[in-house]
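Supplementary notes for students who missed Thursday's class. We covered one full example, reproduced here. Read the sequence, then the structure, then the short commentary at the end.
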Amino acid sequence: MFDKAIIQKIMDSWITDPIDSNSAALTEETPHRMPISQEDVEFLVETAFLASLKKEEDHPVTFSLVFLNKKRATKAFSDPRRKQLIVTFEHRIPLTVDSLSKIAMAFDPRFTSFVVTPTDETKKRYEIWGAMFFNALPNYFDNIQEGIDGEVFRRPNVFMITSVTPGSLIISKGDTQVGRFVAGKFIKATPSPFYSKAMGNYLFNKIKRDTHSKATDRAYWKVFIHSLDYLLSEISSRSHGGSVLIVPDQRLPLYSDYFNAKYTFRENLMIHELISESVCIDDNSELAAMKRLSYNRKISERLQVLAQLAAVDGALIMSGTFRIMSFGVTLKAPKWKGKVFEGPDGYSGGNTLFEHQLLGTRHNSMIDFIGKCPDSLGFVISQDGPIRGLVRKNMKTMYCWPDCRVSMFI
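Structure (token representation):
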């Protein structure tokens, strides 16, 4: 169904991806590692893709598949230091689009993956023999360092494919995201674009005007980046898509001719103030840890409020301190006549043209606005998964980062 070159690209990216030391073993050096072939990858991707397009009781089907046979799993996880919680189905389930879409509703892909293997050496049929459980990955705001000894189950370093939205699949190895399969194309994962050598430097220069030098504080900058990532992820998780513009406070009047504001607030959610107060807690006492958790909870709750505003048709405009300027905004800047390139990721990039003409109105209206309003910075959250970041480099060039989620991790 899909081009063999795409399947090979997925397989090559998975094989060459570095091993995640935090995940359960089954590494390249482990003799119990499950070999995977192009035929395996092709069957898993095509079956997962078709199943992701199904609906059960009007809900999209979401699931995760991990490629591992029972014999190898038993040997690999015999060591108690890397045990894995796997339940075995009494009767194995054929891995088909229909069977997968029927059983998927019973398991949450954040915590569980169906364990699949070929039925025989011909690899014409595959089956589900069990379900593997693992701990959900925490975000910055709910991460508690202390855990229960022996009760931490990590994703193993084997081929895993996860359906998150219709037609969108995540390919991973352990806790590391290898890439994303969207609309018949494979987008290889890159480090987070918020690094200073990528989008981070542009972002820093935009927000420092509003934060009154707070952005130069490394502790503040760290929490700010986690907050922005959390906000974008929350918008994405609502499956509506959306647009977010960061515009410095003093620039908003200058750009007012290029958007129509629909809803505005006078009040402030005080997210910047909460971040500033949280980073002032600098001791390591138990009481200080509890205070940090309290601040983190407040920050995350208010970011969720902010994220919900983006569900309204139109863009959400906010300042560099997360102050709401307007939402439900219609952008109306003149057409951008310059070029758009994929943004550098700290290792490469900056020279490949980004075919923005193939995208819809939401993306192109954002590109037009940023082209006309150079001190702004934008994000477009697509319903199919990617979060694209946009910034103007100069009069003729704009950068687009194809996926701005923390893409090295699920």
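Commentary. Residues 97 and 204 are 46 Å apart (CA to CA). The first helix runs from residue 4 to 16. If anything here is unclear, bring it to office hours.
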